[in-house]
Amino acid sequence: MGVNSDFGRSTFAAKGPVIIGENMNRVNAYAGKVGGETIDGWLAGRKWTQPLNDEFVATVKAQERQIQDIGPDFGRRLQNRIDPSLGRPPSSVYGGERQSLLDYGNYQQLYERAGKYQGGVPGFDP
Amino acid sequence: MSDEPITSDEFRSEVEEAASILRQHGFQHIPQFDSESPTTASVVYVGRNIAFTFTLDIRDQGIDLVVTQYCDGKLMANLDGGYSSSLSTHLLKHCGFRGRLIPSASLPSTASKAKRMLSALMNLLAQPCSASLLEDRPDSLSQKPPEIR
């Protein structure tokens, strides 16, 4: 399936900014509050896979959609540093998205970074 | 230990088993607050003032426990003027808890990834610094717990 796929596109293309970030619970929560969209809307019920994630990023780039990045889940990363049984290492999926968007013009960074384990979206992240 | 990806069904089943400590403290599972998407699943337990949300991030295969203010039948997250934080971040900020937890000795070495993660979270909830959360008072999210000696 290529980036011209119509799957989920009719409803996906008409709405607000596309939200990306680390930890999809966090991404969906933020998108729900600001009227944004996430990969979940684009998947339209399909099971998530890494190739579909790659296709999602390619699609939003091809559509020249505004992408808002809420950044790393700093709390999760810090917890992983303290106790790996509770946290998670930096997400390779999110890292891949960031890599794919390095040359993308319609990208907006919403998060602040104060250190390796400190930062987040003001007013949203604790 | 199984390295099979955690599915939404497995997550829900394991949460039901792991959340007994919440039920013992009067928290109830409210299915209407649960959610499911291609990349996430959540199970919500609420008390009078506080809600605990178990979350599964399918992409990163992470399970977390989020503590949120609960008011007038609504979950009040940060952007709603309430409070929401992962349990570990909450305990770190409110009582400086940085302890490295020991997985439950009762877990067999073959225990699934989901069971091990949930066991670690429930151990965190059993720490003295979590007591004020389980007491479910209106000020539980802001009050600093007693100093641990």
Question: Can you put this structure into words, describing what you see?
Answer:
The complex is a heterodimer of chains A (126) and B (149). Chain A is α/β, with parallel strands linked by helices and 126 residues long. Chain A has one domain (9-119): Rossmann fold (3-Layer(aba) Sandwich), CATH 3.40.50. In chain A, 40% of the residues lie in helices and 13% in strands. Chain A contains 6 helices and 5 strands; from the N terminus they run αβαααβααβββ. In chain A, the strands form 2 sheets. In chain A, strands 1-2-3 form a 3-stranded parallel β-sheet. In chain A, a hairpin with a 2-residue loop joins strand 4 (112-115) and strand 5. In chain A, helix 4 runs parallel beside helix 6 (92-100). The termini of chain A are far apart. In chain A, 38% of the residues are buried. The model of chain A is unreliable at 1-7 (pLDDT under 50). Chain B has 149 residues and is α+β, with helices and mostly antiparallel strands. Chain B has one domain. Chain B is built from 5 helices and 7 strands. In chain B, strands 1, 2, 3, 4, 5, 6 and 7 form a 7-stranded antiparallel β-sheet that branches. The longest helix of chain B is centred in the C-terminal third of the chain and has 13 residues, at 113-125. Chain A binds chain B through residues 22-25, 28-30, 33, 38-40, 43, 45-48, 53, 75-76, 78-79, 82-83, 85-88, 91, 93-94, 123-126, and chain B through 35, 37-40, 42, 55-62, 64, 66, 77-80, 83-86, 88-90, 92-93, 98-101, 103, 116-117, 120-121, 124.
The gist of it:
The complex is a heterodimer of chains A (126) and B (149). With 126 residues, chain A is an alpha/beta fold. Chain A has helices at 9-12, 24-34, 39-43, 50-62, 74-82, 92-100, and strands at 18-20, 67-69, 107-109, 112-115, 118-120.
